[in-house]
Each structure stands twice: as C-alpha cells, then as structure tokens.
Task: inverse folding
C-alpha cells in the first residue's frame, strides 16, 4: 500500500512538475522529454522501485539506478527496446497491454515476467502512463516497475499448499468438515460423508449451509438431543474441543475434535474432525483387561519382580519381592538395588547391568541380605526394558529365593558322594561274592568228575543221569552268578568314553555267539559310530541277538538289525521270526529273573541288563511281537 501510495504521489508530482515546466518553458517543447527527465532525476534516482521512460516504439530513453539493477542493462551506450526485456512467453500480452496504454493513457498493475541480462526470470508489476506535448499528443511513456518475484513465489506456494491440503483432507481416514464463520462448508471429504451417510459427493457440498446439519444427522446417534445440544454449545463458545465421544446407533464410536480458525485473532471459521475409533476402543478395552490380568498375575506370583532404571534406581516391585526382601515398596523406590541388598556381590550387578544396557538377557545367582540382615541367595533372571522408540530405559528382573534349594543341593552332593562310595563298595562286594560263590561250585563240579571217573563201572544208568543233572545245574548256577554280577554293573555310570563303531561290534559278536546254520543275522543299514562304553554296547546287542537266535523255531531263521536316525537320537531295531511273545508279557520280560520259557540256558537276567544299559544312555526300549510269527525289539540311544 505504501508503494502504491508512493507511485501515486510520484505520478501526481511528475504530472504537476511537467505541467508547470511546460507552462514555463513552452519554447522548449522539442526537448521536453530530456528536460522532464532532468527535473525528475532527483526524485526518481533515489526511488527503491525501477523507473524508466520509453518512446512510443518501445525504445528505452531513461533508466534510473534501480532499473539498471533490476534489468542488469544500461542504455547509455547501447540502445535497448523493451521487447528485449520482456519474457518471450509474455510478449504478446505485453504488446496488447501497451496498446491499451496508448488508448487509455495509463496502465495499472500489469504483471508480467522479464528476462534479465543473466537469463534469470523475474516477476514485475508495472504502473505506467503516457507523456504528452503541448498539443496533448502522446510523445512517450513512463512507468514504475516493482519486483514482485518473492510475492509471486509465495502466492504460488500458497496455492500449491492449498492444493496439497485439499488433497490431503480428501484422502484422510478422518472425516473433515471446514466451515466459515457463517457455517457454510468450505471443504469436506468423502470420509465425512461416509460417516454421516451423506450420498452427495464432497465437492458438491461446498457452500452448503450447515446451520441445521445437527438436526438432520441426529437420527444416527444413540443420544440425538445431546448430539444437537453439544454442537450448539461448541459453536457458541468457539473454543478448541478435543476428544468428544459420539456413539451411533449401529455401535460405531466417533471421536470428535473442534478447532476454531483465526486470522489475526479474528474468528473466520472452524474445523470439525470425526474419527472412527470403534476398533481402537474395543482394542483398548481388551488391552486394559489384559493389563489388569497381568497386573494381578505380577502382583500375586511367587516370583519377586523388580523394575530398575539404567542407573539401577528401583522404579517398581511386586508383593512377592516385598515379602522376599522384607522391604515395603515405599522403602525402596528411588534407591539403588545394589546398595540396599548387596555387599560382596556388587560388582556382579554392575557387570550384568552393562549387559542389559546392550540388550542382552541374563541369569545369575547373588548373595543378598534382607531387611532383617539375614543372608539369602537369589536366582535373578533379567531382561532389558525398552521404550516405544526401542531405546533401553532400564531392566526388569525376576527373583527366586533359592536359599533352601542351595542347602538341599549341598545335602544332595554329600548324599551322592556317599552313594558313589556305597556303589563302589557294593561292586567290590559283588565281585567278591561272585568269586566266593563260584569256588564251591567249581569244587562240587570237580568232585563229581572224580566220582564219575573212579566209579564209572560201578554206577548204574540212573545214577549217571542224576550226576549229569547235577553238572547241568552247577553250570546254570555259575552262569546265573555271572549274569547277576553283569547286571549289578550294567547300570553304573559310563566311565570309558570312546568312539564305538557298531558295525565292528556286530561283526565280532557273530564270531562269539553260536549261530546255527539255519539262522542268518544281517544288518540292513550302515550302523552309526557312537560315543560310549564299548563293553556295554556289546552286552546290549549280544543279549538281544542271543535271544533272537535262542528262540527261533523256524527251519529258516532270520535276525535283522536296523537303525533310523532322528534329530537327537538313534532308533535301533532287532527283528526275528521266532516263537513270538504274548502282549501281556511285554513289560514283564524286562524285569530281572522273569522269563517265559524254562530253558536250561535262560537265567531271566539278559533283558533286564539290556534295559539298564538303554536307561543309562537316556533311551527307551519296547517290544512288538506276534505269537508264532516273530518279535521286534526297539530301543533308542541318545546321540550325545
């Protein structure tokens, strides 16, 4: 406004000076333009806006300093035509405007682009008028040119911003309604129309009067009159309102915001925003229920829970931790846990806290003192606590009082040591007993041999048969003693750890075990190499293969050894086509001294030895059989 006023003042001044000069110097009309320029020079040279004078053909007659700076041209040495200064796309428009100037004698607020000497483009606003001679004939034109590039760019940015805002509002998931101070719609979007069941497209609602809109939409609400009253109240107060809740009849829950729009503190309208929060509300209710549920669990669980900051300051404890430590929550909040509970183990906490700050979960044991000063041992399992941005803000620890467990553990170690010693003693005793029991058996066997040799001709047939029965019984007793000794050592801890190639084990067993010509023992797959005691693996397979051979009643006997590899164990099977086992005896056969056939060479110990060895390697054993068809023994051996 100041510039326009200045232009008007300058224009009036120029005209007044021109008229006054023409009156005083009527004889100098031919050089009127130069004299005019000379008289205006003092005024225009210091003008902040560009000033120029052109003849009616567009040739520049005069530039002031501001014009030289604006156009980057100087007409002192090189004549310039204004056509050269105007941007090529605006030349036709400028030409038409120049004709209007010649017709009307003036030109106001012409906005065009100009091309500078540096090839830059600027926007300018031109106010111009004609210069007349004494006969009122136009002889030239003069104009004030103002650089409005910044204003133009700002205007374009505003237009672009308005376009972006309009586009953004159109695609928002919230229903938007902007009204002016008369409650006429300025802009709305499809979501608003959807929420309030308006069938008209948003663009057609522009200018619509919303004064009665509340009454038209109240039928959608569960509380219609409250909906109307609340809108009237908000419009009257014209104050910001956030988070109003509206429940529609179909169960939809809307959150409503009201934001007044001010221009230099003057109210010019307002914005309504409606957002469907039905799902969020339901989720919040579920979340709150879950929160309450887990809060109750945390409060009542038997494990002590504590939350600390990155500086080890206690932020929260549960009831169980309060009972463990003897402290109330109010006594601990804000204090450092390591200073309250720890003495010698304080460095452990510092080390573990460093790990948690790096996001690493950990478990460790510490010795603490409770409020009563009693020493306790706690097992702590901790994890980092994060904020919503993923930043570590502290840690949460679960505490278990293991004082009694530790005491029991020490007692257990003592008991295990005693058991180990007793087992060692029993094993030695078993060997001694085995030796002592076998000695009289061997003596009896030797005496019977001598009696038979010395009295063979004097003994009748019945006596000889009885002597043979005694020899068989002695042999069976000796085997039974050997089996018992073998059984007593079968379940002992494995001391010899070595790689055992089961293929070589089976190969060697075929040489040891008596296998009749009508029976074949085959391995269906390459057997694995296991870590363990070679003797125990030999006992395991020897007993199972011997049983399969012993109880074969077919003309062509078959014994098949197979293996299947699993993730953590091997599953073996030994299958035969022998006499079979009735299902009711599946569990009985693995117990010591339990056998189904009264054979002279059976002691009822073999399968119990197998069971103990399988148990030693953390496996399972079971049987699948059909009477008269055959039997398959399955067992597993843990890989590690």
Result:
């Amino acid at each position: 406004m100041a510039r326009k006023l200045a232009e008007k003042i300058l224009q009036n001044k120029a005209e007044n000076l021109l008229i006054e000069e023409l009156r005083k110097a009527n004889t100098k009309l031919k050089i009127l333009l130069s004299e005019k320029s000379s008289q205006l020079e003092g005024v225009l040279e210091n003008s902040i806006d560009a000033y120029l004078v052109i003849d009616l053909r567009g040739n520049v007659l005069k530039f002031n300093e501001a014009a030289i700076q604006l156009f980057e041209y100087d007409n002192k040495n090189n004549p310039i035509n204004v056509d050269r200064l105007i941007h090529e796309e605006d030349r036709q428009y400028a030409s038409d405007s120049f004709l209007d100037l010649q017709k009307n004698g003036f030109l106001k607020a012409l906005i065009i682009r100009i091309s500078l000497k540096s090839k830059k483009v600027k926007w300018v606003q031109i106010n111009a008028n004609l210069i007349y001679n004494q006969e009122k004939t136009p002889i030239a034109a003069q104009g004030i040119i103002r650089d409005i590039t910044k204003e133009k760019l700002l205007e374009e940015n505003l237009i672009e911003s308005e376009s972006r805002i309009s586009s953004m509002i159109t695609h928002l998931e919230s229903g938007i309604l902007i009204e002016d101070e008369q409650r006429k719609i300025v802009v709305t979007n499809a979501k608003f129309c959807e929420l309030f069941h308006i069938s008209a497209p948003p663009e057609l609602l522009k200018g619509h009067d919303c004064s009665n809109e509340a009454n038209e939409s109240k039928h959608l609400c569960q509380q219609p009159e409250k909906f109307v009253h609340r809108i009237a109240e908000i419009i009257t107060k014209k104050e910001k309102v956030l988070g109003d809740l509206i429940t529609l009849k179909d169960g939809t829950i809307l959150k409503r915001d009201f934001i007044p729009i001010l221009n230099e503190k003057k109210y010019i309208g307002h914005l309504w925003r409606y957002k469907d929060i039905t799902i969020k509300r339901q989720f919040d209710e579920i979340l709150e229920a879950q929160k309450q549920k887990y809060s109750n669990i945390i409060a009542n669980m038997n494990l002590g829970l504590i939350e600390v900051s990155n500086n080890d300051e206690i932020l929260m404890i549960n009831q169980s931790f309060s009972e463990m430590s003897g402290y109330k929550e109010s006594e601990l909040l804000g204090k450092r846990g390591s200073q309250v509970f720890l003495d010698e183990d304080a460095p452990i906490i510092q080390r573990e806290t460093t790990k948690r700050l790096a996001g690493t979960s950990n478990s460790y044991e510490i010795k603490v003192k409770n409020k009563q000063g009693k020493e306790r041992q706690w097992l702590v399992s901790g994890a980092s606590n994060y904020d919503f941005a993923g930043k570590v803000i502290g840690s949460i620890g679960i505490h278990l009082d293991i004082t009694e467990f530790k005491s029991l553990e020490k007692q257990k170690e003592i008991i295990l040591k005693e058991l180990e010693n007793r087992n060692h003693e029993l094993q030695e005793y078993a060997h001694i007993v085995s030796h002592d029991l076998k000695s009289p058996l061997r003596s009896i066997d030797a005496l019977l041999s001598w009696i038979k040799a010395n009295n063979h001709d004097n003994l009748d047939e019945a006596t000889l048969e009885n002597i043979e029965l005694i020899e068989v019984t002695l042999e069976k007793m000796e085997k039974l003693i050997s089996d018992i000794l073998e059984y007593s050592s079968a379940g002992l801890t494995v001391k010899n750890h070595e790689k055992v190639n089961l293929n070589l084990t089976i190969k060697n067993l075929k040489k040891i075990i008596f296998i009749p010509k009508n029976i074949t023992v085959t391995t269906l797959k390459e057997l694995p190499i296991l870590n363990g005691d070679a003797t125990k693996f030999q006992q395991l397979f020897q007993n199972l293969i011997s049983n399969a051979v012993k109880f074969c009643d077919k003309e062509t006997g078959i014994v098949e050894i197979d293996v299947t590899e699993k993730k953590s164990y091997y599953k073996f099977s030994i299958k035969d086509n022998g006499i079979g086992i009735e299902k009711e005896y599946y569990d009985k056969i693995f117990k010591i001294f339990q056998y189904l056939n009264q054979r002279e060479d059976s002691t009822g110990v073999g399968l119990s030895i197998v069971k103990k060895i399988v148990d030693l390697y953390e496996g399972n054993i079971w049987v699948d059989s059909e009477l008269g068809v055959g039997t398959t023994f399955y067992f597993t051996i843990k890989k590690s």
